[in-house]
Automatic annotation (TrEMBL), chains A, B:
The keyword Transcription regulation applies. GO terms for molecular function: DNA binding. Residues 18-116 form the HTH hxlR-type domain. Coiled coil: none annotated. This is HxlR family transcriptional regulator. Keywords: DNA-binding, Transcription, Transcription regulation. It comes from the Bacteria.
Length: 124, 124
DNA sequence: CCGGATCCATAAGGATACTG
DNA sequence: CAGTATCCTTATGGATCCGG
């Protein structure tokens, strides 16, 4: 572990300067982390994810699932039935992210408490 | 720790649905995580951060540092001297993020190795 | 059911010039 | 040194309609 330097790592047809950026990119944006968050609890279908994340549009969901698939973080399994059935689950690399997601969740909880305590102290 | 649900958390004049989203937002985008990454090694001046992150513009650096300051993740200390001297460092909440950043870094390193091994297997 | 395609509004980010 | 201000380009995300 060292300081991020210009080492020009090439992954997923992208060039990064450090391993940290690579990880951030996988979680980046409004949706990808949230999708992974739900997949930690097991395989999910498209419609289930839409129910779990009501504010996401079908377009965004598909788009982000494709990105995660291309990045090797989620599996996409298509069952050749009518009507179509598609399932999403975490790959091995995806599973390895879960403990970190949980740490982020806990940090978030702590952060919320601290911030709200500060806000209260300010208005008092 | 439970599934993210619609709980409407209000922090930093934003409404979130779960603690996980709050944490993601602090690291979100191309730059904020990287800035925090460098601040883990100690207090840094504006010009030092620009040297460490050559591809960032002054505008983006200022903007992201302000966001992190407003979010209570970094301190900004202004010394009333000529020429101006401004130092940035992590707050207590910021420090708590460092172990998670390191985990992300390590996951990124692992991920890069795995992906490059797969690419090699594909072309072979 | 699980999407793809298209169009459009807004936000994010870069280039450049200027300032206490 | 550490920023602001302005302009501009690009990326992101939403709405809507269509299809196997």
């Amino acid at each position: 572990m060292s300081v991020c330097e210009s080492c020009g790592i090439r992954v997923n047809n992208q060039v990064y300067n450090c391993a940290f950026q690579v990880a951030i990119d996988v979680l980046d944006g409004k949706w990808k982390g949230l999708i992974l968050w739900y997949l930690q609890f097991g395989t999910k279908r498209n419609s289930e994810l839409r129910r779990l994340i009501p504010s996401i549009t079908q377009k965004m969901l598909t788009q982000k699932l494709r990105e995660l698939e291309d990045e090797g973080i989620v599996y996409r399994t298509v069952y050749p039935v009518v009507p179509p059935k598609v399932e999403y689950s975490l790959t091995e690399q995806g599973e390895k992210l879960i403990p970190i997601l949980k740490s982020l969740y806990e940090w978030g909880e702590d952060y919320i408490v601290e911030r709200q305590a500060e806000d209260k102290a300010q208005t008092a």
